Amino acid sequence: MNEGTASIIDRKLVGLRVSLNFLRTREGVALADYLADQTLQLAVERSFQEAIEACLDIARRVLTDAGIPLPDRNRDLFAATVPFGLIPADARTRYAEMASFRNLLVHEYDRIDPVRVHAALQHRLDDLQAFAAAVVAHLEGQGPD
């Protein structure tokens, strides 16, 4: 991995961590409180979008650096990172759903279900955290060329 790639991934990791930290501080909010606060809803949606986009960008960079052709769909990017240990093989479906969730937030924003977003806030942050940790381990194992 070249230094430019490591620098880009490091920058994306910072963004992922910022978004994840924001989401973690809102993780325990009750559904009724979440539904009553449109500003919170918008902030959580945007933070999820940024966090997932950072993960997708990192996955693209790792695959490109390894000379692996990129899949046509975002949801397939994560599965392609299994050999690098960025996600476990048995988590492919969860990460594909995460990419689809990002697509909903970006492209079908008029169909966002705040109850679904709240559920993701309660149950999906560990996947983002695990991805960040796996990327750090991957970077430490690779080092610059």
Plain-language structure description:
The chain has a single domain, classed as bsu32300-like (Four Helix Bundle (Hemerythrin (Met), subunit A)), CATH 1.20.120. The termini are close together. The chain is globular, with a radius of gyration of 15 Å. It has 145 residues and is mostly helical. The protein contains seven helices and no strands. Helix 1 packs antiparallel against helix 3 (38-65) and helix 3 (38-65) crosses helix 4. The protein has helices spanning 3-26, 31-36, 38-65, 74-80, 92-107, 114-123, 125-142.
- Classify the fold: give the CATH topology: Four Helix Bundle (Hemerythrin (Met), subunit A)
Count of distinct strands: 0
Question: Roughly what fraction of the amino acids lie in strands?
Answer: under 5%
Q: Helix and strand succession?
A: HHHHHHH
In angstroms, what separates the terminal alpha carbons? 5 Å
**What general form does the structure show?**
globular
**Whole-number total of structural domains:** 1
* Uncertain regions spanning at least 5 consecutive residues: none
Largest sheet report: none
Integer average pLDDT? 91
Structural class: mainly alpha
Provide the CATH superfamily. bsu32300-like
Relative helix content? over 70%
The CATH architecture name reads Up-down Bundle
What is the class in the CATH system?
A: Mainly Alpha
Q: What Rg is obtained from the alpha carbons, in whole angstroms?
A: 15 Å
Q: What is the count of helical runs?
A: 7
